[in-house]
Design brief:
With 115 residues, the chain is of the alpha+beta class. The protein has helices at 23-36, 61-73; strands at residues 2-3, 5-6, 9-10, 20-21, 79-86, 89-96, 99-108, 111-112.
């Protein structure tokens, strides 16, 4: 169980207490963080992140899946199954021990938005 992050901030409930995520949502949130952070940009762990952050429109799905799996294999029990670019977004289907779900990253110039 982890804190729920929405638009880069900790989500809070009506009482002002932090919300949490668990199960599939937790795995997908972790995957989004790993995939959205450009590889080498996190000061405390230069191995954190992925090259998925540098995807450009027209990139082949196989390459996106391979890059995602390379990043995910270092930190979790997750695997990218499929990927698709639609307009300014890349959608990556992630298989986890709790099921499958989709992570959506926004393509912005050379880098993606952080989760």
């Amino acid at each position: 169980m982890n804190l729920k992050i929405v638009e880069g901030k900790i989500a809070v409930n009506a009482q002002g207490l932090p919300e949490t995520v668990s199960g599939l949502s937790d795995f997908l949130q972790q995957a989004k963080f790993i995939l959205a952070v450009p590889l080498g940009s996190f000061l405390y762990d230069r191995g954190f992140g992925s090259t998925v952050a540098f995807i450009k429109k027209g990139e082949k799905a196989e390459r996106i899946i391979a890059n995602a799996n390379e990043a995910l294999s270092q930190y979790s029990q997750m695997k990218a199954c499929s990927a698709e670019i639609r307009e300014d977004r890349v959608m990556i289907e992630i298989e986890t021990p709790k099921g499958k779900g989709t992570v959506i990253l926004v393509l912005k110039g050379e880098e993606n938005d952080l989760p």
